[in-house]
Amino acid sequence: MDNVALVYVNSSTVKRELFDVLVAKGYKILEASDENELKTKYFASQDEITLYIQEFQETDKEGSFELLKIIDRQVLNTVLLIHDLDIKVIEEASVLNVKDVVKIPFTFNTLSRRLEPFTNSENAINTSDKELDLAFDFSVLEDEISRAKRGNYPVMTVIITYDQRADMQQSIFDSIKQQLRTTDTIESFDSENILLHCPFTPKVSFAIVENKIKKAFDTININSNKDIYVSAVTFPDDADDFETIKNKIKDQLFENRLFYKMDNPKNTIDLQAIRSRLRRNF
After folding, report:
1. Which domains does the chain have, with CATH numbers?
2. Cβ within 8 Å of residue 132, ≥6 positions away
3. Distance from C-alpha of 178 to C-alpha of 67, rounded to nearest angstrom
4. Rounded to whole angstroms, how far apart are CA atoms 26 and 127?
């Protein structure tokens, strides 16, 4: 069974930390940005949702509690994120059958442990304190940056995260090679991520490179608008030393997995599912 989390969080910092944890634990994420979207996504997908997480707004306590009441908390595990340790809020949350209340700010490990009782561990990504088990040694990148410094030219490192297709790895590799220039290098390749370096390529050229990558996947009948996620880190635009570039790439690999694991764009609504739900309820 998949882990599916419905999330109603307004603070961008809280959202980023929360999503990192949810992705690492193997959750698909449904995000709601307002009350109407919360109702729509909840009633359209409540059979699949396994966890509801809401950020409590201390400036609108009554409104926050009303949002909680939309959710069937007897059936769905519900976690409340609060900024202030207010005993009255905690007591009311308990009365409403909220399963846990977590203080903001929280660490990655702390929230991960608190969500463990609600998580199907079979779907979790193998990660420890946000450190990914990466096969990349970045040796080619170090050489590329050394040459770029001597020659005073930019190097773009492209990170591609894609649907796991171990049986198609060779086809994917060959198709990408056909789109690359002779100066471009694939440093690492596995069933989830591809790392390639494009010398003489400034940051402003990312769209051109991205289109080439998408064409490579489309050529072998992999939907580039659905099944892959492409990003890049560029020397010297994003940083001018190897260690910083390497760390930015590691961060971007994690971000790629984060965005790739998110379910659908938050404004995408399955109208047929909603109609079916309305017929069933009314």
Report:
1. 3-130 (3.40.50.2300), 134-261 (3.30.70.270)
2. 125, 250, 253, 254, 257
3. 52
4. 11
